[in-house]
Amino acid sequence: xxxxxxxxxxxxxxxxxxxxxxxxxxxxxxxxxxxxxxxxxxxxxxxxxxxxxxxxxxxxxxxxxxxxxxxxxxxxxxxxxxxxxxxxxxxxxxxxxxxxxxxxxxxxxxxxxxxxxxxxxxxxxxxxxxxxxxxxxxxxxxxxxxxxxxxxxxxxxxxxxxxxxxxxxxxxxxxxxxxxxxxxxxxxxxxxxxxxxxxxxxxxxx
Length: 206
Ligand code: PD2
Ligand code: ZN
What we know:
By secondary structure, this protein is α+β, with helices and mostly antiparallel strands. It contains 3 helices and 16 strands. The chain has helices at residues 24-34, 70-83, 118-121, and strands at residues 5-10, 15-19, 39-40, 43-44, 51-52, 60-63, 94-98, 104-107, 128-135, 141-142, 145-147, 152-154, 161-165, 179-181, 184-186, 189-197. Strand 1 (5-10) and strand 2 form a beta hairpin. The two termini are 30 Å apart. The structure holds pyridine-2,4-dicarboxylic acid (PD2) and zinc ion. Pyridine-2,4-dicarboxylic acid (PD2) binds at residues 96, 104, 109, 131, 133, 145, 179-181, 191, 193.
């Protein structure tokens, strides 16, 4: 556990900055394991529950299974402890790479309760309670994670992470959790994302 500070940034959405959450070794391990298998990123189609490619998310990415390596397991334990949930509530860790110009346009990580595919998508594990985004590389310019509703943006510093809730304490979705990855302007950005469900979630998305 290398976290030396949990810095609250906002109450709604509940958002904290975790300085030095990962060691350099952990960041490099995730990038090297992910690099050979990254593919264009997908999102969940709200109508069908299928994974589809969309222009709003131009990164490439890959998933790991829960506890795929001892080091991944240690990271997953750390996130679960902060959220006070079980490790099995987590979806498999996702590693994303953004090149110059690549971004993830503003979106919610929760599944929209008004869409017809949502009951199917949340049947196992419930909603996405919280998200942890871990910055794995130094980015020359751009690539901040931005929360437009509250005008907060976080620079992608290697080893730091942010943790935020997509739901309010009563379980309702928090529309202030809208967030984006701004385009990378120079260099490349690598992150690991952990989406944590309300209840045990036992399979990987793809
Ligand atoms: O890479 C990011 O900064 C980012 C921003 C918004 C990642 C995600 N969302 C995500 O993986 O959900
Ligand atoms: Zn997101």
